[in-house]
Design goal:
It is built from 8 helices and no strands. Helix 2 crosses helix 4.
């Protein structure tokens, strides 16, 4: 049975993990969704941006953390580098799904909206984004679940979170420590997947 100090540490690290994931996902959304909207109008840069995002996604997470450490302003040991790395990993599914959702809108619907006198901004806000919402939510779901798992590795560079328990357990060959970090992370990922999946299904039914 866990002692009170262990429970407090577990709750503190779980909250730290949640904040790390949430801040990374919010930043990734602020970059990827507006970026995808702009790229949906520009085929040339769109292909280049997707190619860059694909390349970044292939870099192993621990290696990416290492690459970022010596970079001024965004690097170093600690949460800042961890957040930057997690944002990079969350960009691809958000960017790809937002583009797929917007580009997947039936051109006839778009043309009908323009014929009704809507401006490009109104078409985007009132037609394209609402129709693309389920696909965007699917990208958010993938990015969030993936980030929860990847954030575990952030402990290797002082990013905190549940990875602290896992790395400590590995160092001391203590399976209970490993499980105390891995199980809450898995539960967090399952809850996020189910919660965002419910929101995604709601958007789909509204359609």
């Amino acid at each position: 049975m866990m002692e009170s100090d262990q429970i407090r540490e577990l709750l503190s690290l779980s909250l730290e993990h949640l904040v790390l994931v949430a801040s990374s996902i919010v930043m990734a959304c602020l970059i990827a969704i507006p970026g995808a909207i702009l790229l949906s109008r520009k085929p040339g840069p769109r292909r280049a941006a997707i190619a860059v995002a694909n390349i970044l996604q292939t870099i192993p997470s621990l290696a990416l953390f290492g690459f970022l450490i010596p970079i001024p302003f965004i690097g170093g040991i600690g949460k800042r580098t961890a957040v930057v790395s997690l944002v990079v990993y969350a960009l691809l599914p958000l960017l790809r799904n937002t583009l797929a959702g917007i580009l997947g809108v039936d051109p006839a619907i778009r043309e009908s909206a323009i014929a009704m006198g809507m401006t490009p901004g109104q078409v985007l806000r009132q037609v394209e984004i609402p129709l693309a919402a389920p696909t965007i939510m699917a990208g958010l779901r993938i990015a969030t679940v993936t980030t929860i798992g990847t954030a575990v590795i952030a402990a290797a560079i002082g990013g905190g979170g549940l990875g602290v328990l896992i790395f400590r357990g590995i160092s001391f060959n203590d399976s209970s420590q490993i499980l105390s970090g891995a199980v809450p992370a898995a539960i967090m990922a399952l809850l996020a997947d189910e919660g965002l999946g419910w929101v995604e299904r709601r958007f789909s039914r509204i359609q």
